[in-house]
Structure formats: C-alpha cells, structure tokens
UniProtKB/TrEMBL annotation:
<dbReference type="InterPro" id="IPR029962">
    <property type="entry name" value="TBL"/>
</dbReference>
<protein>
    <recommendedName>
        <fullName>Trichome birefringence-like N-terminal domain-containing protein</fullName>
    </recommendedName>
</protein>
<keyword id="KW-0735">Signal-anchor</keyword>
<dbReference type="GO" id="GO:0005794">
    <property type="term" value="C:Golgi apparatus"/>
</dbReference>
<feature type="domain" description="Trichome birefringence-like N-terminal">
    <location>
        <begin position="64"/>
        <end position="117"/>
    </location>
</feature>
<dbReference type="InterPro" id="IPR025846">
    <property type="entry name" value="TBL_N"/>
</dbReference>
<comment type="similarity">
    <text>Belongs to the PC-esterase family. TBL subfamily.</text>
</comment>
<dbReference type="GO" id="GO:0016020">
    <property type="term" value="C:membrane"/>
</dbReference>
<dbReference type="Pfam" id="PF14416">
    <property type="entry name" value="PMR5N"/>
</dbReference>
<keyword id="KW-0812">Transmembrane</keyword>
<keyword id="KW-0472">Membrane</keyword>
<dbReference type="InterPro" id="IPR026057">
    <property type="entry name" value="TBL_C"/>
</dbReference>
<feature type="transmembrane region" description="Helical">
    <location>
        <begin position="22"/>
        <end position="44"/>
    </location>
</feature>
<feature type="domain" description="Trichome birefringence-like C-terminal">
    <location>
        <begin position="118"/>
        <end position="406"/>
    </location>
</feature>
<keyword id="KW-1133">Transmembrane helix</keyword>
<dbReference type="Pfam" id="PF13839">
    <property type="entry name" value="PC-Esterase"/>
</dbReference>
<dbReference type="GO" id="GO:0016413">
    <property type="term" value="F:O-acetyltransferase activity"/>
</dbReference>
Length: 425
C-alpha cells in the first residue's frame, strides 16, 4: 500500500497535505505494537503472562480457540439458580444469607471469557455426561465448598442419597440414583501425610509435620475406581510447617525452631503436588481424568485472618484494578509447573490431566466470601472473618460452569474417537 493510500485511510483526503513518511511509519508501528500486546490480559504483567502461557493450552471450540479462564465478570440478573433455602447442602459457614448478609449483588455475576461465551451450568446436560460415572473432590475445605455448590446446582434435577461408608464428615459420598452418578469428598488439606504436633504453634495457628514424600493414603487408596479426580490444596500452607523427607527433618516454614532451616512455603507446596501427582500416575487401575483445580486467592484486607483482616467489598474487581503478583502468582506458577510434569508422565500411561484454572477469575472476587456472615454475631468462632471460603450461592458456582464445559469437550473428543475407530474397522 502506498503512503498516500495509508493517509487516506486515516482521513487525509488531500494528497497534497500528506503526513511526513516518518510520521506515517510511527503510526503504523504504534498500531502493530498495540495489536500484538495482549491488552485482554491486563491483570498480568507481560512477563507473568509469558510464563503462564508456557504451561497452558487454550481450549478449542470448533475451529476457534478460546481460553475460558481469561476474562471479566459481567452482570447476570438471572442468577442465582438456587437459594440458601432451596439447597440443604450448603455448609453453615458458607450460608451467608442465613446469617444476615445485607447485600445480594455478589450472586448476580457471570464469567465472560474474552474470546467466547461460557455457558451457564446446565444440570441436565451435566448428569447425562457423567451418567454411570464417579467424581472425587480431593483436597481441603474449599474443595468441599466446590462439591456443595455442585450438589446445589444439580438439585434442580435430582437430590443425591448419602452412601458414605463412614460417619466421618471429612469423607462423604453421594449417589444420584437416576443417573448412577457418585460424587465423593476426601478431605486432605496437605495431600501428603501430615500430623499436628502443636495445636497452638508459633502463630497460634497450629504447627504441623509434613512428610513431603509420603502421600496421604486416606485418599490415594480410594481413587482406582473413580472416573474423575478434582484435586486442590492451598490455604493450609500458610500455617507453620516442619518438613520431612525420607523420615529426616529437612527444614520448615515459619516454625521458629532453632537450627532448622526455613525453606519457605514454596518448597513444601511444590513437593506435595509432585508427590500427589506421582501417586495418581502410579495407581494400578485408575484410567480416568485428573483435574487440577488451581489456587483460589483469599482477600483479607487490613490484616491477616487472625489479626483483624476482613473482606467487606460488595462487587468484583475489574482485571486492571488488581495485580496478579507476589505469593498468589508464585503458588499458581508452582502448580502449573508441576501439572505440566505430571501431564507429560501421565500421557505415557494413557492418563489424562486437565487444568481447571480458577485462580484468575477468583482473584477478582473479593465480594464473594462469607466474611462475618458465616455465623451469628454472638458465636465464638476460630475464623471470625472468613475471606477464604465462598458464599453459596456465589462466584464459586462458576467453577461448575468451567467444569461442565471441560467435560463437554472431553466427551466430544471421546465421541469423535469412537466414530473414528468405527470408521477404520
């Protein structure tokens, strides 16, 4: 294209009044820079984005590629799709409306990916996809929070029956009889073998021994028959910990013990995911799909959880209003790095790993936590302001929008494979 033609595109209709060529070149360079620069990811620094993209592959929707986990929260006046009075599965500490939360706008948002639409959870479609299958939620109480959201969303179709083999609330199983679908929760906050050695600890938050190379057999011995595992861990790692490997003390995190090296939270976090993923890849009969549900940041402001921290915001952040940095980013990157290793090793055995990336979306939701509305004001509770778990109904319901979309894509791949197999035989 000639310079005269370029200038006409910019509104200069008189060739005699052409801009200098240098100016035109500068304009073209500016357009090129702004086209290439990923402006649709404003919550990341560019270097952080480059690191993250090393470990993530965009989801495919037909011929179009779309990262469903990168986007913004937009209003959704149709939500919520259940209430705290219609769903009995809501844990008391996440029953925000029961305990007097005065605002309700936090329930009326949906996640909008930059490059496509994310459908709202369809319970009929979900149950058809998982008919005859089973799903395990493995991790801490935020994982259980996720499972309870799923039960509430599915309640529009059917209520499950309790088929738990034990009365222990940390290990529960539910079955949907019409669909022969089972979900289970396995509470294991560190994923590996752990033991509380001091209920007070240096920060009045307990002190735990973590055996970084020994998986918690309470969950690994139960996984063989599951079709899906959704694994998570995070907030317990902010407690003081002592690390053991091969039965030897190797260091700690915030333990304040003399002559013990502080290896930081990141050392333990990386090791436990490595151990957990190796355990899954070593299961003899497991043939299912493992989802890593990534770290969901807390939103304590004006102090830590035990020093007056609170979360009182009533609307989401825009992505350019908060930085994805510091500890949140480091923990997230550790997960992506260990996930990539596990996925590569699993593929050699025909095992599948999927990334259920909730970190970016939940970083923007400081309004979604129970805060002080997880109990009555006069109650004496340990976590007075809860800025870790999520109100139900609330933004955590979007995790099941993500999950269903991923299951649909997995189901499409499986169906396509079946058709291809039939055509070649």
């Amino acid at each position: 294209m000639k310079f005269q033609d370029i200038e006409l595109l910019f509104g200069n209709k008189n060739p005699k009044q052409m801009l200098p060529k240098v100016t035109v070149l500068a304009i073209l360079l500016a357009i090129l820079i702004f086209t290439i620069t990923p402006l649709c990811y404003p919550l990341f620094s560019y270097s952080s984005l480059l690191k993250i993209n090393k470990y993530k592959q965009p989801s495919k929707y037909g011929e179009k590629k779309c990262d469903i986990f990168s986007g913004e929260w937009v209003p959704n006046p149709k939500a919520p799709y259940y209430t705290n009075t219609t769903c009995w599965a809501i844990h008391e500490h996440q029953n925000c409306m029961k305990y007097g939360r005065p605002d309700s706008e936090f329930m009326k948002w949906r996640w909008k990916p930059y490059e496509c639409e994310l459908p709202i959870f369809n319970p009929f479609q979900f149950l058809e996809i998982v008919r005859g299958k089973s799903m395990a939620f493995v991790g801490d109480s935020v994982g259980r929070n996720h499972m309870q959201s799923l039960i509430c969303l599915l309640s529009r179709v059917e209520w499950p029956i309790n088929v738990s083999p034990t009365t222990n609330d940390y290990f529960r199983q539910w079955r949907y009889p019409s669909y022969n679908f089972t979900i289970a929760a396995y509470w294991t906050p560190y994923l590996v073998k752990s033991k509380m050695v001091d209920s007070i600890g240096p920060s009045h938050n307990g002190l735990f021994n973590l055996y970084l190379d020994q998986v918690d057999k309470a969950w690994t011995t139960q996984m063989d028959d599951f079709d899906y595992i959704i694994i998570n861990a995070g907030h317990w790692f902010f407690r003081p910990m002592i690390f053991y490997e091969k039965q030897n003390l190797v260091g700690c995190c915030d333990c304040l013990l003399k002559n013990v090296t502080d290896l930081t939270i990141y050392h333990g976090y990386r090791k436990v995911f490595r151990t957990a993923f190796k355990a899954i890849n070593s299961l003899q009969n497991f043939k299912g799909v493992t989802f890593l549900r990534t770290f969901a940041p807390s939103h304590f402001e004006n102090g830590t959880w035990n020093k007056g921290g609170q979360c009182v915001r009533t609307k989401p952040f825009k992505s350019n209003e908060i930085e994805f940095e510091g500890t949140n980013l480091k923990l997230y990157m550790i997960q992506l790095e260990e996930f990539k290793i596990a996925k590569k090793e699993g593929s050699k055995k025909g095992l599948k790993f999927q990334l259920l990336d909730t970190t970016q979306a939940m970083l923007l939701r400081p309004d979604g936590h129970p805060s002080k509305y997880g109990h009555w004001p006069h109650e004496n509770v340990t976590l007075y302001n809860d800025c870790v778990h999520w109100c139900l109904p609330g933004p955590i319901d979007t995790w099941n929008d993500f999950l269903l979309q991923m299951l649909k894509m997995e189901d499409m791949k499986f169906s396509s494979g079946e058709r291809l197999h039939a055509q070649t035989n």
